[in-house]
Design goal:
Elements: H1 6-16, E1 21-25, H2 29-42, E2 46-51, H3 52-58, H4 60-73, E3 78-83, H5 88-97, E4 101-104, H6 111-128, E5 131-136, E6 140-143, E7 146-149, H7 156-166, E8 170-173, E9 178-179, H8 190-199, E10 204-206, H9 214-222, E11 225-230, H10 232-248, H11 255-277
Helix pairs in contact: 2-4, 2-11, 3-4, 5-6, 6-7, 7-8, 10-11
Length: 283
């Protein structure tokens, strides 16, 4: 199977109304393999994501080539998405390399400038024939180049203005979620989520799901969240798996003996998150 568009996956989830598509970040081959293995085991659609930081680390063409090869061998539908693209030239490079979906994050700009830049991002995506996600509001926390601080909840009127003027394929919102490693459990504003879902036609996206409990996540999905971003959980799983393998065999120099268990830990964590999203058997 070839890579598909994010738009296709989210529209199917929106029509169903009972699940969200898990969007999982990868930065190397082992994390990618863990995600793909989990998706195949769970028979779940999946959005493979790479951030600008990941592109700088591994290269946009390398990451795209790995994802394209993985999709060709898989029977489950997968999209390849640029996560938190800040620079328009990065969006262009990702689309050219084979990404089937892009995100433009202009949330750090004032409203009017974010709207204007988002228009350009949508035009770029439409010309390239790929899906586009934009963000309204400021999602708190910190992850790579994303520094949201305490965050700023999405204003429904601004969300409506973005919907009307940009017509994105997905809209990332801030409803109490936060990026990165969160030490305390987050409480989402479900009343705001209901309003945002009624104000917009675009499927809604939840970033920063690490601090969100499974019951909170499931309720958010029931109220319109159709894409759930997951990165920190996989990083933790990979790191803990690697540390355990190193501790058990400190003299081993075959990298596969370390990276294999780390990959398997990612697969286990990814399956748990897919179950939380309700995407099992939705491929």
């Amino acid at each position: 199977m070839t890579l598909v568009s994010m738009r296709e996956l989210l529209h199917k989830a929106d029509r169903d109304g009972t699940y969200a598509v898990p969007a999982l970040n990868f930065v190397n081959m082992e994390v990618l393999e863990g995600i793909v293995s989990a998706a195949e085991e769970m028979k779940s659609p999946v959005i493979l994501q790479a951030s600008e930081g990941a592109l700088k680390y591994a290269g946009v063409k390398v990451l795209a080539a790995m994802a394209i090869a993985a999709a060709r061998k898989s029977k489950v539908p997968m999209a390849l998405h640029l996560d938190h693209g800040i620079h328009l030239n990065t969006l262009h490079d990702a689309a050219k390399a084979g990404f089937t979906s892009l995100m433009f994050d202009g949330s750090h700009y004032p409203f009017a400038e974010n709207l204007n830049r988002s228009r350009w991002a949508v035009r770029l995506a439409r010309r390239a024939g790929v899906s586009i996600e934009i963000e309204v509001g400021i999602i708190g926390g910190r992850e790579e180049q994303i520094h949201g601080g305490k965050g700023e909840f999405t204003d429904p009127d601004q969300a409506w203005a973005f919907e009307k003027n940009t017509k994105p394929d997905a809209l990332a919102v801030s409803i109490g979620n936060a990026h990165g490693h969160v030490k305390k459990e987050l409480k989402l504003d479900f009343a705001l989520l209901k309003t945002l879902d009624s104000f917009t036609r675009a499927p809604l996206v939840l970033h920063g799901s690490s601090g969100v409990s499974d019951p909170e996540l499931k309720k958010a999905i029931s109220l319109g969240i159709r894409k759930v971003n997951m990165d920190t959980q996989l990083r933790n799983a990979f790191t803990q798996g690697l540390r355990k393998a190193l501790a058990e065999s400190p003299d081993e120099i075959d990298l596969r003996k370390y990276l294999g268990p780390a990959r398997d830990a990612v697969a286990k964590a990814a399956m748990e998150r897919m179950a939380a999203c309700g995407s099992e058997d939705k491929a």
